[in-house]
Specification:
The chain is built from 4 helices and 31 strands. By secondary structure, the protein is α+β, with helices and mostly antiparallel strands. Strands 2, 5, 6, 9, 10 and 11 form a 6-stranded mixed beta sheet that branches. Strands 21, 23, 24, 26, 27 and 28 form a 6-stranded mixed beta sheet that branches. Strands 13-20-22-25 form a 4-stranded mixed beta sheet, with no helix packed on it. The radius of gyration is 66 Å and the shape is elongated.
Length: 426
């Protein structure tokens, strides 16, 4: 009986001491379950208690993948191996909150806090822990006709869904990376080509969170169909027109057709975006895809009449001047040539004059020749004659003299012409 009483007393004392210790050493987790969207930042709130006469030496956070008592730990105050995404927001007093940035799916699991004081028995771990779940943002699309193809003029609703079921979340919508709208639902009505693009949503409070991408591709028939012409709408007779048909369409244009208007009748003349023509006239093109077709405006092609360009006009002025200059130059050259020839002829005559020998013969009157050459008072008229001896050719006389050098008998004849003498007597 006494033994049983002793055992009961000992048990009660141990239970009392354990209750006292439990009241003095403990860890409290304000949220046992936390859900965070991938890419966001989450805080695990925590507080701890210990006897007031003790001092906390070490604090640490562990993950359920490792031993919660011995580690390794994802955070430890005396270690430099802490991952940069894990930040201890608490202190060594009573706050033990842990912050995790850029949450990843691998961060899912239970986290526990452990602290050690300067007392021999001052070690405690909050084994209950706080469990983290990593969720996603998803987009659901609702289309009235249920078809995945988006056509111009139709409507669609996009809803951003947080898998953490946080209904109080505020969302931001992005189109091709640029902020577009806000709210959990995005309404796109009477769509056009401008609504095509990639859409995502994120938590307004955490811009790092991003949903999956929803691509909206609005299809439509050809529009803004036009024709460009090179050269302009007029050309020289020797060149061709190059015409290009362009149009915006989704899906792209499947067929191009060129028409020439001939007496109010449209005649197909080509089936390519580019068309060459050397004929004047009126043309237009048609662009077609599965949603329809569209005609371009009519273009009129003309053949240019010949017009002298500024350069050709200059040439027309220069050519006559050049011709006149050539003629004047030719005349001057001819004159100079003639002058040279004249000068050369005069020089030849001067040379001939130098080689000339003048001889004179007296000329006698006929009556006087009959009466005799010795009549008194008769006058003789001298007639001078020039005998030209060329140096290049010897005269007959000279040749004769050369051939008969010994002939010394030379006969000279004098021709005299007697002038009548006038007497004072009858």
């Amino acid at each position: 009986m006494c033994l049983h009483h002793r055992n009961l007393t000992r048990t009660l004392m141990l239970l009392f001491l354990y209750g006292v210790l439990c009241d003095e050493y403990k860890v409290e987790y304000q949220q046992g379950h936390i859900c965070a969207v991938k890419g966001s930042t989450v805080v695990i709130p925590c507080s701890f208690h210990y006897p007031g006469n003790q001092i906390v030496d070490r604090v640490m956070w562990g993950h359920e993948r490792h031993n919660i008592y011995d580690g390794p730990f994802i955070y430890e105050s005396i270690s430099n191996n802490t991952l940069p995404r894990f930040h201890y927001n608490g202190d060594k007093k009573h706050n033990c909150s842990l912050e995790i940035s850029h949450v990843e799916p691998n961060d899912t699991g239970k986290y526990t806090f452990r602290f050690i004081t300067d007392s021999a028995v001052g070690k405690w771990t909050g084994v209950e822990g706080s469990t983290l779940k990593v969720g996603d943002l998803n987009i659901s699309m609702t289309k009235p006709n249920g078809n995945r193809t988006m056509n111009e003029g139709e409507s669609v609703n996009l809803t951003c869904i947080n898998s953490c079921d946080d209904l109080s979340s505020a969302f931001t919508w992005f189109k091709s990376g640029e902020p577009f709208s806000e709210g959990p639902v995005l309404y796109l009505s009477n769509m056009s080509s401008t609504n095509s693009g990639n859409y995502t949503c994120s938590l307004k409070s955490h811009t790092g969170t991003t949903s999956g991408v929803i691509n909206i591709d609005v299809e439509y028939g050809p529009k803004n169909t036009s024709v460009s012409v090179r050269p302009s709408f007029e050309k020289d007779p020797s060149s061709n027109f190059t015409m290009i048909c362009s149009s915006h369409a989704n899906p792209p244009v499947e067929n191009y057709t060129w028409f020439k208007i001939d007496k109010d009748d449209n005649k197909a003349v080509g089936h390519q975006p580019l068309f060459l023509s050397a004929e004047r006239g009126q043309y237009f093109c048609t662009a077609t895809n599965k949603h329809g077709s569209q005609n371009s405006s009519v273009v009129t092609l003309k053949i240019k009449e010949y017009q002298a360009t500024p350069n050709s006009k200059i040439y027309l002025l220069i050519l006559p001047l050049v011709a006149v200059l050539l003629i004047v130059t030719a005349v001057i050259a001819l004159r100079r040539l003639n002058k040279k020839r004249t000068t050369a002829s005069e020089a030849d005559r001067e040379d001939d004059t130098e080689n000339a020998v003048y001889a004179n013969w007296p000329v006698l009157d006929k009556n006087q020749s009959q009466e005799g050459s010795q009549s008194e008072g008769a006058t003789v008229e001298l007639i001078y004659a020039m005998v030209d001896f060329h140096t290049k050719r010897k005269s007959n006389m000279q040749q004769h003299m050369d051939s008969h050098p010994d002939d010394e008998d030379v006969i000279y004849s004098t021709v005299c012409k007697s002038q009548p003498s006038y007497s004072s007597e009858p």
